[in-house]
Design brief:
Layout lengths: L1 H32 L5 E6 L9 E7 L4 E10 L6 E10 L6 E6 L22 E10 L14 E7 L18 H10 L12 E5 L3 E4 L4 E4 L7 H9 L5 E12 L5 E8 L5 E9 L4 E6 L5 E6 L8 E9 L2 E8 L2 E8 L12 E5 L8 E10 L13 H28 L15 H4 L16 H5 L1 H9 L1 H6 L4 H14 L13 H12 L3 H13 L7 H13 L3 H13 L8 H18 L19 H5 L7 H11 L3 H13 L8 H13 L4 H13 L7 H13 L3 H14 L3 H13 L3 H13 L10 H13 L3 H13 L9 H12 L3 H15 L3 H12 L4 H13 L4 H12 L6 H13 L7 H17 L3 H12 L6 H7 L7 H15 L7 H19 L2 H33 L14 H61 L1
Antiparallel strand pairs: 1-2, 2-5, 3-4, 3-6, 6-7, 8-20, 9-20, 10-19, 11-16, 11-20, 12-13, 12-19, 13-14, 14-15, 16-17, 17-18
Helix pairs in contact: 4-10, 4-12, 9-10, 10-11, 11-12, 12-13, 13-14, 13-26, 14-25, 14-26, 16-17, 17-18, 18-19, 19-20, 20-21, 21-22, 22-23, 23-24, 24-25, 25-26, 27-28, 28-29, 29-30, 30-31, 31-32, 32-33, 33-35, 35-36, 36-38, 37-38
Length: 1108
């Protein structure tokens, strides 16, 4: 009975387990189907920084992939410091798995500082993150930056003072314990840490939009000062002094002067704002959490420098407003104490994403963190005074020009002698009553003051009267006239007169900020005019305040590099680049217009680049057109793309592009052409709008593997059909397959919280998508990611202004208008107009574009303008993060050949090594060759390139040179004999010779080989001579003997035979002697040649052995 019960129990237990596994498998399969193809996420993760805590990572890979879990911390000095990393490779594909990782954290973030833990870190934030990346060609990525799928979680940290002590693992010696007790509380004296901060010491242009400069303030290092600051958070005593210059009233009801935002991007104390009527509003957050503000009715004037001094003396606020040596004092008492923590969040000078800024300029700004009784903030910069003077002059020029245009259009008869000049007042008194006088509204001095402009206006009077020239057209005409007259008659020198400068100034005043940029370039570079940094700064600021794309890029570039008198300030650079970047983002919507082109990297110094250009009459284009007419789908698509974008020297033609894309897409063979044509159908560009056909083509292209078509389907469902769930599905598929637009769109969904699956706003996920898309050059994603990096307002993301600036600079350099200017410059160069090309390349070079800088330097050399002109732009080009090798080689040659000066020779050679190293890292064989030559001269290679050539400190000179030249030869074309391959062969032969001569026997063999060569030089000509002598000698005929006919005849013959016989015997002996001598010489020479050949064979065999 017991056996039966046991059997039944076992059967029931087995069945239960089997059913349970089936249910779990069904649940697992159901949940697996609901997740995307490639996936990574946390099943569980700790909330705090705890050693030994466990992270469970759930993931699935459709291809071989590598995964990793990292713990990253940030301190006040370092960001993204990895303190833990665990990697593994997944071999099972398409299966959801859970991997357990135990976090083993270093003592530096877990315990207090003690004898065994002296490097304890004061951590600001900590993040645990997991990432996944597909393996390509068997390579294993090493960085988180290579990943495309990742997940984050911010961990709660324990302050350093509250951490536990580290458990001792060994005992200290008496002496070590004594020394530790004596030194543990000893602190090194802190350097002087001022509580007065110059927030701004160089003018900042503000366009009145949502762009401004971000400043963050750190806690004091000095503990006494930090305690005072913390105590003043609820009882603040601070002073802010700021100079502003207003060009216009606020576009909106409020605009920002200075405002403070906390880490949640909420307004904090203190805010200084301006109303559209010129009044000032001060707002602060109270300790109760409420916000309170007051208004000061002052009506600030335009085009005057105004100083605002705001002093907070809790709970009182004093505001001093000063201009024209007059000061107004305003006091306001808040209802409660003010909460003020300047280390919380960030301050913005001007505009931000949440509040537009003023339209004008910011002058010096001083911040007194503990307040002050005497404010010292004088307007001492000459640039500020020149800026005010130039703006007033512009007002006069605009008023005069408007009056002139009005007089001409109203067809007033101007005198032929002094057109448009009113009679002076003292002459007008002599005019008889009833005599007709002029009706002009300007004084007689004005045409004399602006005589160059006045004379030019007179020449354009007919065009003004007919209405073909207005203020907008005049600014372009003035610019063109000035540029055309800049060169001398022989077109070999730049000669800029005061007349040209006045035309450019008028063009700038009328709103043409290419003229502002050219004026700034002339004053800063000294092209045809003396260098004047102050005036250069003035025109640069005018162009930036006028919202000119190129002027904004110019100002951002100068502040990034700290050149031409601009201070290096990445926060100021970001304020300009953020504006230019957003304009570039807006410009992408109109990239099809004729005034925008994709930037093509054609270097004038590279003939191959110039030869690659095509046009509609070229053989390549005609062949492509021929193939397209024959019905070749790829040729039709290629031709349509060239005509749409205007590539390779072909002009844009949207209608013809649409025709060829239509032919290609209708064959349903080329998914790229189908996608491009669907976009034209969606927008109605060059073809009638047809969303039905566009959707059909998108689906077909997506089915054929087009990732961009998947993104297009997502856009159609999200925007047109308002089906966000399907849109997210398509965007995810596109992003997983590498579509940057798909990544960006997913980031927008996470940022807005409109993702139906996760209807919550997730800025961290959005930021990660933006960063991933920005790595591939996505314009809008770069703009979004740069904002987070500039402010550091997102948890786990530290402020990194440099990275934000580099990101935006890349975006701005892809601007279509900049591409159009480069295209114009290239066309002018190809047409022989070197001067026009030079001016356009200079304008683009001043924006920081490396291509334009290299080409401007080339034209400086080609036009023989000046030595400084050439090296100025070469030097600028090497400052870029992606410098072209040709510029690096030029600067390297410049430093190397300038090293003849004894006192500077070592430093100049070091700089040459640096330039050649950067060129080598960029893949330049010439740079590698130059490094090899310098290494052969005994110069040590920089550390930056040692890894590239696999060189160590212990390698001998010949080994180093050989490794460099070998890498150079591998980089060059293998089918041709190159300088690197010849140099490498010479080096190897020299090394082989030295190895041979180190051995006595082999040295003897080398000498013998040398003698053998000499012997060959002697005996081979001798053999040739002997051979010619033998072949040239004639054989001697034998005399026929006859029988005598008489006795006398017999005797006569015998007598003759006796005489002749003696003679023949003597000659025969001599002949035998000669023959024997020649035979001996021939045998000797044969033996010498043989021995020499054997010796040389032995030598070359030994030499090749050492060589190979």
């Amino acid at each position: 009975m017991n056996v039966l019960h046991a059997f039944m129990f076992g059967y029931v237990f087995t069945a239960a387990i089997t059913m349970g596994e089936c249910v779990l498998q069904a649940i697992s399969s159901e949940s697996d189907e609901s997740l995307p193809g490639n996936f990574i996420g946390f099943k569980s993760a700790p909330d705090k920084v705890v050693d030994g805590s466990v992270v469970h990572v759930r993931y699935r890979c459709l291809r071989p992939c590598q995964l990793a879990v990292e713990v990253v911390v940030s301190t006040s000095r370092k960001t993204d410091l990895v303190v833990f990393r665990r990697k593994w490779i997944s071999g099972r594909l398409g299966v959801y798995r859970i991997h357990q990782v135990q976090l083993r954290l270093p003592p530096s973030i877990l315990y207090q500082a003690d004898f065994f833990n002296r490097d304890a870190l004061e951590v600001d934030n900590a993040t645990v993150r997991a990432w996944l990346v597909h393996l390509k060609n068997g390579t294993v990525p090493r960085r988180h930056g290579d990943s495309m799928f990742s997940i984050y979680k911010v961990l709660e940290i324990t302050p350093l003072s509250e951490r536990p002590a580290k458990p001792p693992t060994e005992s200290l010696s008496w002496f070590a314990r004594l020394m530790w007790q004596m030194t543990r509380d000893r602190t090194s004296p802190c350097p002087h840490e001022p509580d007065i901060i110059e927030v701004l010491n160089f003018p900042l242009a503000s366009t009145g939009e949502t762009f401004g400069m971000v400043r963050r303030f750190q806690p004091f290092v000095d503990q006494a000062l930090e305690r005072g600051r913390l105590h003043a958070v609820t009882q603040p005593s601070v002073t802010i002094s700021v100079w502003i210059y207003l060009l216009r009233r606020c576009h909106n009801s409020l605009c920002g002067i200075i405002h403070h935002l906390n880490r949640r991007n909420e307004y904090d104390s203190v805010l200084m704002m301006l109303t559209d009527t010129g009044d000032i509003i001060i707002q602060a957050r109270l300790t109760t959490g409420e916000e309170e503000a007051f208004k000061v009715s002052v009506t600030l004037p335009l085009r005057k420098w105004i100083r605002l001094d705001c002093s907070i003396q809790d709970p009182k606020v004093l505001l001093y407003v000063s201009w024209d040596d007059e000061t107004q004092r305003h006091v306001y008492d808040f209802s409660d104490s003010i909460h003020y923590d300047d280390t919380e969040g960030y301050f913005v000078i001007g505009g931000s994403k949440f509040l537009p800024g003023i339209h004008g300029y910011f002058g010096p700004i001083k911040y007194y963190r503990f307040g002050t009784e005497e404010i010292k903030n004088q307007l001492h910069l000459k640039t500020l005074q020149e800026l005010d003077k130039t703006h007033r002059e512009c007002q006069e020029i605009k008023a005069f020009t408007k009056a002139f245009l009005k007089e001409v259009t109203e067809s007033h008869n101007l005198s032929t002698n002094s057109k448009a000049v009113c009679t002076p007042h003292f002459i007008r008194l002599w005019v008889q009553p009833g005599e007709k006088t002029c009706s002009q509204t300007w004084t007689w001095e004005t045409p004399l003051k602006y005589s160059s402009l006045f004379h030019l206006l007179q020449t354009k009077e007919e065009q003004v009267r007919t209405g073909s020239l207005d203020m907008k057209g005049l600014r372009t005409t003035l610019f063109q006239e000035a540029v055309a007259a800049m060169f001398t008659a022989d077109q070999t020198q730049i000669k800029i007169t005061s007349e040209h400068m006045s035309w450019l100034l008028a063009s700038s005043c009328f709103g043409n900020h290419e003229a502002s940029l050219l004026l700034a370039s002339i004053h800063l570079s000294g092209l045809g005019h003396p260098v004047d940094h102050n005036q250069g700064h003035v025109y640069s600021l005018i162009g930036a305040s006028g919202d000119g794309r190129f002027a904004l890029m110019h100002a951002g570039y100068k502040h990034t590099q700290g050149i031409d008198g601009f201070p290096k300030d990445l926060d100021m650079a970001y304020s300009y680049y953020s504006n230019a970047g957003l304009q570039s983002q807006s410009d992408t919507a109109y990239i099809h217009e004729d005034k925008q082109y994709i930037l093509e990297h054609i270097y004038l110094s590279n003939q191959e680049d110039l030869d690659s250009l095509t046009h509609e009459e070229s053989d390549f284009f005609q062949f492509l057109k021929f193939e397209a007419k024959r019905g070749h789908a790829e040729s039709q698509g290629h031709l349509g793309t060239m005509l749409y974008w205007g590539q390779n020297g072909v002009s844009k033609d949207i209608v013809r592009a649409a025709k060829w894309l239509h032919r290609s897409s209708m064959q349903m063979k080329d998914p790229l052409a189908m996608y491009d044509y669907s976009l034209l159908l969606m927008k109605g560009l060059g073809v009638k709008k047809n969303q039905t056909l566009a959707l059909h083509l998108l689906k077909k292209a997506a089915a054929m593997g087009s990732t961009e078509a998947l993104n297009g389907l997502g856009w159609y469902h999200g925007i047109i059909l308002d089906d966000h769930e399907s849109a997210v599905k398509y965007f995810e598929q596109a992003a997983l397959n590498g579509s940057v637009d798909g990544m960006y769109n997913l980031g927008i969904y996470h940022l807005s919280g409109k993702n139906p699956r996760i209807p919550l706003r997730n800025e961290t996920a959005a930021f990660q998508y933006f960063v991933n898309a920005s790595r591939f050059g996505h314009v809008a994603a770069s703009v979004e990611a740069a904002w987070y990096l500039s402010t550091g307002s997102l948890g786990g993301v530290s402020q990194d202004a440099e990275r934000a600036v580099i990101m935006l600079k890349k975006v701005c350099e892809r601007n279509g208008h900049l591409g159009f200017m480069i295209r114009d410059a290239l066309q002018a160069y190809l047409q022989g107009s070197r001067q026009e090309a030079f001016v356009k390349y200079v304008l683009a070079a001043e924006t920081g574009l490396g291509l334009a800088q290299s080409n401007a330097a080339h034209l400086c050399e080609e036009l023989d303008l000046s030595y400084d002109c050439q090296w100025r732009y070469h030097n600028f080009s090497i400052l870029n993060y992606n410098s072209h090798p040709s510029a690096l080689l030029k600067m390297g040659d410049y430093y190397y050949y300038s090293s003849g000066i004894p006192e500077d020779s070592l430093s100049l050679v070091g700089q040459a090594l640096s330039m050649y190293s950067r060129a080598a890292l960029a893949g330049s064989p010439q740079g590698m060759y130059n490094l090899g030559i310098l290494a052969q001269q005994g110069h040590a290679l920089p550390q930056s390139v040692r890894g590239m050539f696999n060189v160590t400190h212990y390698d001998e000179e010949d080994i180093v040179v050989e490794k460099v030249l070998r890498r150079c030869a591998e980089t060059e074309d293998e089918d041709t004999v190159t300088p690197c391959s010849l140099a490498l062969l010479g080096l190897q032969m020299g090394t082989a010779w030295r190895r041979m001569t180190q051995n006595g026997a082999q040295l003897l063999l080398a000498y013998a080989s040398l003698l053998s060569v000499c012997a060959l030089l002697v005996f081979i000509p001798l053999q040739s001579c002997l051979g010619q002598r033998v072949s040239g000698r004639r054989p001697v005929p034998l005399r026929a003997r006859t029988s005598p006919v008489s006795q006398e005849g017999v005797n006569l013959n015998r007598e003759q035979d006796g005489i002749m016989g003696g003679t023949h015997r003597v000659a025969g002996n001599l002949w035998l002697t000669v023959l024997n001598g020649e035979q001996w010489l021939r045998q000797t020479s044969d033996l010498a040649v043989t021995l020499s050949g054997v010796c040389l064979c032995a030598f070359w065999t030994t030499f090749l052995y050492h060589l190979l």
